[in-house]
């Protein structure tokens, strides 16, 4: 892989894999529909696939089932050098010496990757990492959760805590961001992503947290064009996106 490039693969929901010049990184793996599909082209990661991969790092932002799949811990049987960076709310049954439990507002370096953690507006944490010169942010469940069915006080509080967290992130260099775009929020489905893009200005913002609702990504792509946000429409599991930091 060219040092200035990364190959990004959409896995499912909030799951993405990122291959940089020297690392293979997986965020929030969750694949409930794997069935007999066993390849990265299907959005499925296996221990066999990772067996000969070098410098593998696996992140999970929190314990919710759609962000943490315990199957990730089985991968170390095939590749004992995998590093796991897990939110401290995850009760992982593993004896791996390479398992790192982290909370919000920590900084650490693992396998030459600089990691900084931030909070969430739900459970767990969000991640900002520097890998081979590329800065990557994964929001986890950090979002402006503006639910129409909640009271005004509840919606105001959701806005307050989201913007407070954004103040911690604003000013950070972000090349690639993975951020929730969730149409359960109705007209506010991309409110948080728009705010994040306006404050942080990532070179590429890719949607997540939409499950099988690929029209959410389609709608966001159209909205992003109007706002000058660089994105890619996600249409299927296993979709590859090439990011170049030179652009």
UniProtKB/TrEMBL annotation:
<dbReference type="InterPro" id="IPR036866">
    <property type="entry name" value="RibonucZ/Hydroxyglut_hydro"/>
</dbReference>
<dbReference type="Pfam" id="PF13483">
    <property type="entry name" value="Lactamase_B_3"/>
</dbReference>
<protein>
    <submittedName>
        <fullName>L-ascorbate metabolism protein UlaG, beta-lactamase superfamily</fullName>
    </submittedName>
</protein>
